[in-house]
Design a protein that fits this description.
472 residues; alpha/beta; eight-stranded mixed β-sheet; globular; Metal_Hydrolase; Amidohydrolase; Metal-dep_hydrolase_composite; hydrolase activity, acting on carbon-nitrogen (but not peptide) bonds, in cyclic amides
Length: 472
């Protein structure tokens, strides 16, 4: 048997070298930090591509700029999808197609902040009812864009009414119904092909009767106080969730190796609203409910962007102005349930007069086709009540105020140099019941031309099916 001795000079030297190598590895090597968990905040990016833009000069038009201004006999130049110039007596450069707008009106495109097109699509069947995930009072994890059917013929009908942009919301069954999506009204193959690039997400919430009715027999909430408790707990959970991710980020930056919190899609959306990245739009009718929700807003430090429907907004218009909350309202819908009973036709004008942000919305696949007429009704009712509002001022209810509430006013909502050429050429005064949208442009591309039916968007469900004997 071969024996060795630790006293052997050769063996001692080998052990010393090996030990040195091992100790050197221990000194120079630190535990490697795991890769940082960075959540993709835009997993469903817009793939929108604008229609070919045209160089067009609109001349002799009566122009409403969407900011409260009006120019008679105006000229507007658009090219490369943007508004280039507007004013009186402009020189028209070479290469522009001239459209004589004598006796016609030019306005920013209409923006509807409350639509369910695509999530409650036509034809109205149970299979197309995809707007309410009524499985839990708080379903912030669902996104309306995953229910939108782009072939809903309602999009084309709204386009014929001058609507260039719309916000598609989940329904109002839940305390928190999920994320909304803002789209360009250019019907396409997928919702991503319609998605307004870089528009912030919205968060749909609802107060009052709807959540009570839906969940009263499902274990709650069944009262308004139960509703409020549900919101508060959801926001408290979201705060805790955000703190856990903030702690993880801080520790990672400090060189530690923390374990990332478990991802929760519901709390992730709510945390985004707390940070201000997601805009909160809240279905709310009664003044007292809106007041309570503004208190909850202050408790948890988020901002309500708009109250939707807001039938009693006139009662607290000063508070809405003070808290910078818009009201998206109907001209004259009221009385179809108790919380809608105390509506008045002067609501929109009174909110506007108080200095608050007033918006005309549809919440209807029919109303969206004639929002200009809805604004006309609200304007007329206000004027008859002695509120002096001009047509130019009232158009803000359809374009710039909605754009501000959706976080896209830097791109659209008014006729200003450098903004997207989203505009409508009307046959006459758009506050007239006889007015028709003759041409609708989105990013400078002709999206609708009333005189050219071959360009009208047509859904498969409007084409029908061949009858018996017609298929030969």
């Amino acid at each position: 048997m071969f024996k060795t001795s630790l006293k052997s000079p050769v063996l001692l030297g080998t052990l010393v070298v090996a030990t040195g190598l091992l100790s050197g590895c221990g000194d120079d090597t630190k535990p490697q930090q795991a890769p940082f968990v960075d959540i993709n905040q835009n997993p469903f990016p817009s793939t929108y591509k604008a229609l070919p833009s045209q160089k067009i000069a609109f001349t002799h038009v009566n122009l409403l700029d969407g900011l409260g201004g009006q120019i008679a006999n105006a000229t507007l130049l658009m090219a490369d999808g943007k508004i280039q110039q507007l004013g009186e007596s402009l020189e028209i450069p070479d290469g522009y197609t001239v459209i004589d707008g004598k006796d016609k009106w030019l306005t920013p495109g209409i923006i509807d902040v409350h639509s369910h097109l695509g999530v409650y699509a036509s034809p109205s069947t149970g299979s197309h009812s995809d707007g309410n995930e009524a499985t839990n009072p708080v379903t912030a994890q669902v996104w309306s864009e995953h229910s939108v059917w782009p072939q809903d013929p309602g999009f084309g009908r709204a386009l014929a009414g001058g609507v260039t942009v719309l916000q598609i919301l989940p329904g109002s069954a839940n305390l928190v119904g999920g994320r909304s999506v803002t789209v360009k009204n250019l019907p396409n193959r997928t919702v991503q092909d319609m998605k307004f690039p870089d528009a912030p997400y919205g968060l749909k919430m609802a107060c009052g009767e709807n959540p009570k009715r839906v969940y009263g027999k499902k274990g709650g909430p069944s009262t308004r106080m139960g509703n409020v408790a549900g919101y508060r707990q959801a926001w408290a959970d979201a705060q805790d969730y955000q703190r856990s991710w903030d702690k993880y980020t801080e520790e990672y930056k400090a060189g530690k190796n923390p374990k990332a919190p478990k991802r929760d899609l519901r709390l992730e959306t709510l945390a985004g609203a707390l940070k201000g990245d997601i805009k909160v739009h809240m279905h709310c009718y009664r003044a007292d409910d809106m007041g309570t929700m503004m208190d909850v807003m202050k408790e948890f430090g988020y901002q309500i962007t708009s109250f939707q429907h807001a039938v009693e907004a006139y009662k607290i218009a000063d508070k809405l102005a003070e808290n910078k909350v818009c009201s998206a309202m109907w001209a004259d819908w009221w009385g179809f349930k108790m919380e809608a009973y105390d509506g008045i036709r002067e609501n929109i004008a009174m909110v506007d007069k108080a200095g608050a942000c007033a918006i005309v919305h549809s919440d209807s696949d029919l109303g969206i086709q004639r929002l200009n007429q809805e604004a006309a009704k609200a304007l007329g009712d206000g004027q008859r009540a002695g509120i002096n509002i001009s047509k130019a001022h009232a158009w803000q209810w359809l374009s710039s105020n909605p754009a501000k509430s959706l976080g896209i006013f830097d791109k659209t909502g008014s006729l200003e140099v450098g903004k997207n050429a989203d505009l409508v050429l009307w046959s006459t005064d758009p506050f007239s019941t006889y007015a028709q949208a003759e041409k609708v442009y989105i990013d400078g591309g002709l999206a609708f031309d009333r005189d050219d039916p071959s360009r009208w968007p047509v859904s498969d469900f409007e084409l029908g099916q061949p009858g018996e004997g017609d298929s030969k």
